[in-house]
Automatic annotation (TrEMBL):
This is ABC transporter ATP-binding protein. PROSITE patterns: ABC_TRANSPORTER_2 (PS50893). Residues 5-230 form the ABC transporter domain. GO terms for molecular function: ATP binding; ATP hydrolysis activity. Keywords: ATP-binding, Nucleotide-binding, Transport. It comes from Planotetraspora phitsanulokensis. InterPro entries: AAA+_ATPase, ABC_transporter-like_ATP-bd, ABC_Transporter_VariousFunc, P-loop_NTPase.
Amino acid sequence: MTSALQAQALGKRYGKRWALSDCTIDIPAGHVVGLVGPNGAGKTTLLKLAGGQLQPTTGGITVLGERPGSTPAQLARVGFVAQDTPLYAALTVAEHLRLGARLNPRWDAALARERITQFGLDPAHRAGKLSGGQRAQLALTLGLAKRPELLITDEPVASLDPLARRDFLQGLTEAVITHELSVVLSSHLVSDLEKVSNYLIVLVDSRVRMAGKVDRLLATHHRLTGPRRDPVRLPADQRVISVSHTDRQSTFVVRTEAPIHDPAWTVSRLSLEDLVLAYMEKPAENRRAAVEVQR
C-alpha cells in the first residue's frame, strides 16, 4: 500500500522539552485518516513536520515519498489547513485567491471560484470581517484549490459551531470524492471523525496505540462484561485494551479476530468514541496488564 506519510523514530525537541519523541507511523494514501489523541500527544507537531513547517530533531519523515518541503514541487503536492485558519485579516477574499494563484503552480481558479460562490463568500469582504465558519471555508478553499495530493488539516473545526462544522465536513467530503484526495484530519471530536474518516490512528505520548480501517477496528473490538476475573485468565488471542472492576464484576475491552463463545460474558459492540477512549484512558492499576498483553 502506498503511504501518504511515513515516520520512523521521529522526534522534535524545543530546548529541553520533547514535543514529539520516538514516533513511528505509516499513514496510507487514498484514505481520509482521522488522527486523534489527548492534548500533548504530539499531533500538531507531527503535522507541522509533515507540512515542512518544522524540521525533525531525530528520526525521519517522508510525505508522498519525499522529504517534506524539500522542493517547491513537493510543497505543491501538500495542502495544509491549520486550527486557527490563518488568513490575512486585511486582505479580501478575492485578494486571498489571487495570492493563492501566484504562490501555487497547480492552482485551480475555477474550483476556488465555485467554492466561494457555493458558500456565499463575498469576494470584496475582508477576511477579518468573516465569521468563523466563513474563515474556515476560505482556508479550506485555499488548501483545495492548490490541487494537492495530500491535504493535512489540524483541528480545523475545533472552534466552530455545530452548523459550521457540518458545512466544513460536508465540503471536505465532497472534495475527497471529486478530487480523490488523501486527507489527514486531526480532531478531538470523535463524532466528526466518525462522519468522514475511513481510517483511524490513535496517538498517545507520541506513539501509535491503534491504527487501521474504521470498519475493521469496530468489528474486532468488543466489550466483555461478567463475573470478576483476572485479565491473565482470558484466552491468549484476546488482547486486553482496558480493564475495570467492581467487587463482583469485570469489564474488559478486548481486540480479537476470533468469535467469543464464553457464556460467562455479555458481549457488546463499541462505538468509535468508546474505542478511542479505551486506548487513550486506562486506569493506572490496569496499565501493567494491558502492556503485558500487547508485547
